[in-house]
Specification:
This is RNA polymerase sigma factor RpoH. By secondary structure, the chain is an all-alpha fold. It folds into 3 domains: 10-114, Four Helix Bundle (Hemerythrin (Met), subunit A); 118-175, no CATH class; 208-278, Arc Repressor Mutant, subunit A (Orthogonal Bundle), CATH 1.10.10. The chain has helices at residues 10-16, 25-38, 41-49, 52-60, 69-86, 95-114, 117-120, 124-139, 150-160, 164-175, 204-226, 230-240, 248-255, 259-278. It starts with 9 loop residues before the first helix and ends in an 11-residue tail after the last helix.
């Protein structure tokens, strides 16, 4: 099988793959069975070799994305190998029909990896628009560079059945070049653009300090709870520290006392807990009301 073509010998590669003969349906099916059943390498080479022209043809359809044609063909060839491993000739369709999806998928994945995520987007709808916009512009003779006029954006939006704002936004992404964060800033000798980016998240030092403080308070609460009487601890935990707090009525039945008595025990337990955790200082309630 032909190796992946480099940019320098692309023309020679395209000439050589024409030497592989086209296969008839019966011969193709026999070769596919030989690979499926016996893993015959000669059968695989003949079957794939006869479809290398298909990969090159598909690759030319993606030439407008500005990526090396040799790389695009190499990715498509890998997709065709994947297709061969999953192809079942007994289902009644030709290898071309089955392989075409794998070839296109491999090339599109390569394009997505190579283009900036900022320029093409990450959602399924943005990826669909990314691949469909250039084709739609070509069909409507709107392949000029730069911004679209409002009328052109509207025509494309109606054609693709998407909002006008999405068309205009994606066209702007595709037309605008990526800007490196390592570019020097005007008027500064050593500064770069990335030096002025602000991270809105908390620093590692702040997060560590918060975790340590939270752990300290949890340990302090645990020690204070251990100094409460067993009934106080149970009522306080059931009323204030449970994800599904029990009602006064529930606890009155559980302990065989009145609801008012439960409320009094709870209030006393909270006062004790605050005193134990603060050394007697009066502070706002440490347990959520």
């Amino acid at each position: 099988m032909e190796s992946s073509p480099s940019r320098s010998d692309l023309a020679r590669y395209l000439s050589r793959i024409r030497e592989y003969p086209m296969l008839g349906a019966d011969e193709e099916a026999d070769l596919a069975r030989a690979w499926r059943d016996r893993r015959d390498p000669d059968a695989a080479e003949r079957l794939i070799g006869s479809h290398l022209r298909l990969v090159a043809k598909v690759a030319r359809g993606y030439a407008g994305y500005g990526l090396p044609m040799s790389d695009m063909i190499a990715e498509g060839n890998m997709g065709m190998v994947q297709a061969l491993n999953g192809f079942d000739p007994d289902r009644g369709y030709r290898f071309t029909t089955y392989a075409l999806w794998w070839i296109r998928a491999a090339m599109q994945e390569y394009i997505l990896r190579s283009w900036s995520m900022v320029r093409m987007g990450t959602t399924g709808a943005e990826k669909k628009l990314f691949f469909g916009l250039r084709r739609a512009k070509s069909n409507m003779n709107l392949l000029q560079e730069g911004d679209l006029s409002p009328e052109e954006a509207l025509r494309l939006a109606q054609h693709m059945k998407v909002p006008v704002a999405d068309v205009a936004g994606m066209n702007g992404r595709l037309a605008g070049p990526d800007q490196s964060l390592n570019l020097p800033l005007p008027g500064m000798e050593d500064g770069q653009a990335q030096d002025w980016l602000v991270d809105p998240s908390e620093s590692q030092e702040e997060m560590l300090a918060q975790r340590q403080e939270l752990e300290r308070r949890r340990l302090q609460l645990k020690r204070a709870m251990q100094q409460l009487q067993e009934r106080e601890r149970s009522i306080l935990a059931a009323r204030r520290l449970s994800e599904e707090p029990l009602t006064l009525e529930d606890l009155s039945r559980q302990f065989g006392i009145s609801r008012e008595r439960v409320r009094q025990i709870e209030a006393r337990a909270i006062e004790k807990l605050q005193r134990l955790m603060t050394g007697g200082r009066r502070v706002p309630s440490l347990v959520p009301a």
